Amino acid sequence: MSEPFSVRITVRGYETDVQGHLNQSVYINYAEHARWSLLQAAGITQAGLLAEGVGPVALETTIRYRRELLAGDEVDVDCVFEWGGGKTFRILQTIRKTDGTVSAEITAVGGLLDLEKRRMVADPSARFKELASDPGLFGL
User: Fold this and answer.
1) 36 class by beta-carbon count within 10 Å (0-12 exposed, 13-18 middle, 19+ buried)
2) Rounded average pLDDT over 96-111
3) What's the pLDDT tens digit per position in 33-53?
4) What is the mean pLDDT of the chain?
5) What is the chain's Cα-based Rg?
6) In angstroms, rounded to a whole number, what is the distance separating the alpha carbons of residues 4 and 21?
7) pLDDT value of residue 2
């Protein structure tokens, strides 16, 4: 497992619900933003993935809500890829206020889809390593 990659996000008022809490669906948006930011920092773009005929897919997402977030709160969204030996990988993410309070923990299972064959790539870690200019961000 690598050190967490992190992005900072400020909770916007329009992302909150009637109680003033960050809407539950926005947590997934924040997690996805951190994942794509990590890919970009590692040298992988959406256009580059399409040109290579592959695309990341989400297979499962679990969120544990710990503490509320309100408009104006600043959070750091961490992202760590965990590689196994199969066609899937796990992404571990924490959404944490700048004072260290954990607001949510997100665990996702993903894969890399061969867009022509419509099948999962057999070794996604090897493929990410080939595509990335900085595979160390993925712990590779």
Assistant:
1) middle
2) 98
3) 999 999 999 999 999 999 999
4) 96
5) 16
6) 26
7) 57
On whether the CB atoms of residues 63 and 104 are closer than 8 A, the answer is yes
Q: What is the largest CA-CA distance in the chain?
A: 46
Beta-bridge partners for 96: 76, 102
Q: Rounded distance, CA 112 to CA 122, Å?
A: 9
- What pairs with residue 91 in β-bridges? 81, 108
Helix (H, G, I), strand (E, B) or coil at 134: coil
* CA proximity to 139, closest of 102, 97, 106, 90: 90
Contact predicate 74/9, CB 8 Å: yes
pLDDT in tens, 71-93: 999 999 999 999 988 999 999 99
